[in-house]
Amino acid sequence: MKYLLGMRPKAWLDFLGISSSDVELLDEDVDKVDTDLSTVTAAADLILRVRGDAPCIAHIEFQASADRRVDSRVLRYNVLLGHEHDLPVESTLVMLRKEADVPGVTGRVIRRRQNGRGYLDFVYEIVRVWERPVDEFLNSAPNLLPLAPLAAVNPAELPSVFRRMDSRIAAEVAAADAKELWTSVFVLMGLRYDRGLAEKLVQGVQGMKESVTYQWIVEQGIQEGLEKGMEKGMEKGMEEGLEKGREKGELQEARKLLLRLGRRRLGEPGAGIIETMQSIESLQSLEDLTERILDVETWSDLFASFS
Prior knowledge:
Order of helices and strands: HHEEEHEEEEHHHHHHHH
Strand content: 5-15%
Radius of gyration: 22 Å
Number of domains: 3
Oligomer: single chain
Helix content: 40-55%
Shape: elongated
Structural class: alpha/beta
Strand order of the largest sheet: 1-2-3-4-7
Number of strands: 7
């Protein structure tokens, strides 16, 4: 998705409704911001700085799987990016398939005090690709075409969709980029369709098999078939290990965020504060502490509830 957006960022801003109606934002007016910001720890999917009469930061998250904490994640990145760049931040979550649309993820975060009085009301945009008309992608810039098979389209209509995509790509895209666009189509189709159908539809695309990425995918598929018998016995353990590893990584990144912002506002923490921070095993607690940094004056005040 980062590759597709990077081909022509302006087209994505138009699609997401971020560009202004009275200011023409040319591609050269949109810069990719290094996502390895110290306060975002490279976790945000993609960040753009939009220049012009109404400058802002465009923050785009792509979601293909269920994550009930995505609201809090988008909020965290929105606040940190706004603090880092001193610009309005337009956050958008692009859901690539229905499995990502879990109850409770609404595009709005409301936080209340113990007395019920609200102290935060954050709203961001959600784009559900499968609800968008397929023509919206087929008539858009070439770097949005790979999303067409994931849009509101009946599988029986896919051959026609592919013919239109092929016609557009052949006429408008350089050969090297065309190969990678078709590889992107093939990869993204795996979110909704079985591999056999995807292979059948892309089989006749000129130059597809010359793509190094596509060849690698095919080779991985062959290797996967050879190892499938072994995988059955290891599947459960691998899933549990990956989940534990993911949770551990998220906690580590959250601690780094808290420490980085805290040092900038509250100064260097003492050994006891570091020890307390390392002992917190709740991602929600770490996120809440990060949000409270601007409301306190000392590390002791921040960690009062954990003493």
